[in-house]
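Methods — Computational structure assignment.
A single polypeptide chain was analysed. Its primary sequence is given first, followed by the predicted tertiary structure written as C-alpha cells.
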Amino acid sequence: MPDLSHAEFSATLQAISDIGKEGYINYGTETATHNVVDLSQVLKDLTGGDRQQAIDTEIEGYKQNYGFLHLELLANAFGLLFQDYLLFINSKETSLTTRGIQDIKDYFTANSYALKSRAITYDPSATETGAGDHSVYRLTVDKDADSIEATFAPNTVSIRVTADQKEDLERFEETFEFFMPTAPSLLEMSGNGPVDGLSSPDFTAVNQDADFITNHSFQAGQSNGTPSATPVAADFTPWVDSTATYGTSRYAFDTTNTYRQSVEEASGSNVAISLEIKTNLTLQQPITGFTDGLPCFWALRYMRKSSCDGNLTYHVGTNATATVDISTKSNDTWYILVPTMNANIYPENFIEDEILAKIVVDSNTTGTVKVDAVTLDEMTAFNGLWWALVAGQTPALKTNTPKQYVYADTVSSDSIIQRLLFLSLGIFLPHATGVSITIADP
C-alpha cells in the first residue's frame, strides 16, 4: 500500500485541478481574462491588420496544440494519482480500467465522498418537428443512480432522420443520426461539443425480431395469413404461458386491431396480428446476451377492450418493470408501455438468476387487453448518455423538413475538478451540492 491517505489524495486532486484551472480554463477559454484569443487581437493591432489571415492561422494551430497537450498532461497526472488511490482502497485493479473506475466510485459512495456537481439540467423533453410519431428516450444516470456528468454540457443535441424507405430501409426502422455544435478549438470548448464533433452512431427503432425478443408481434400465431383459431403452445414459441395453459379461454389472435405490421408479418402470405389476453396470466420468454454497463430499453404496445380493468406489467428481470392500470386508459386506443428511465434498466440491476421477459396481467375481472410489437433492445450511447428510439404507427420521413428532436441541456454552475476529469479522462465521480461536497473545487 502506498503512503497515501484519502486526505492526501484529495489535496493532490485539488492541486492538479488548480493547475488545470489556471492553464486550461482561466487561460485557455474565450471567457478568460488573458488568453490566446486576446493575444491574436493584440498581434493584429500591432501589425495594423496587415497579416490578419496569417495570424489567425497561426493562432488556431496554437490553440489546437495547446489544448490537446494540456489535457494530455492532465490525464497523465490524474492517471498516476488514481493508480495510487486504487492501491490505497485495496482494489485489485492497478489502472483506470472500467472495473478500477467502478471501485473508486464504490469507495466514494461507501464513505460519502463527493466532488462538486457540474449542476447539469437535462432537458426533460425534446422540441419535435417533422413527420412521424417516433419517441426518443434517454437515460442520464449510471447504474448506481448517479447523474451522469461525463458529457459535453451545456449543449444542444439534435436527432434527425437521415435515411428512410427511399434508401430501401424497412418502415419504422429509419436511420437517425445525432448532431451537436462544435467548438472552433479545444481551448474554446466550454462544453458545447468537441472539435470536429462526435462520431454519430446509427440510431434506429426496432420493428422485427431482434437480439432479445423473438416472435415479438406474435406472428407465429398464423398460417398463410390465417390466425390460429385455438391458440396452442407452438403459436407462442419462444413465449411460454407460466401455467402451460393456452386455448380460447385465455388467448385469441386478432387481425382487426393491430398496432402495425412487422417485418415478419409483411413477408410472404402473413398478415398483421395482435394477441388478445382474456384473463390474469403470465406470458414469458428467457433472455440472454446482456452486457453489464449497457442499459436496455423495452416497449409493449397495448389496447384496452370492453372496459378492461386490472394491471398490465412488462417485466425484464425482477427490478426492471413497467406497469399500467388498464382501467385508466380509453377503450380501442393503442398505447405504449415503457420503463422509467432509472438505474433499474442496467443488466446489473435486473436481479434474477434466469432473466425472463414477462407480460403479466393481474387483478383483471372484466374486459380484455390486446398486446402487440413487444421489443427489447440495448440503448445507444452518444455524448456519454444512453438513448432509445421507439417507433409509433407513422413512419419518420427524410423530407425538406425531416423528423427531428432537439434537446437543450444547461449548466448552472460547472465544477472544475469534475469537468477536468471528464475532458481529460472521460470519467466522472460521485458528486453533490452544498454541504455534501467533501472535495471542494480549487
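Note: The longest strand covers residues 368-378.
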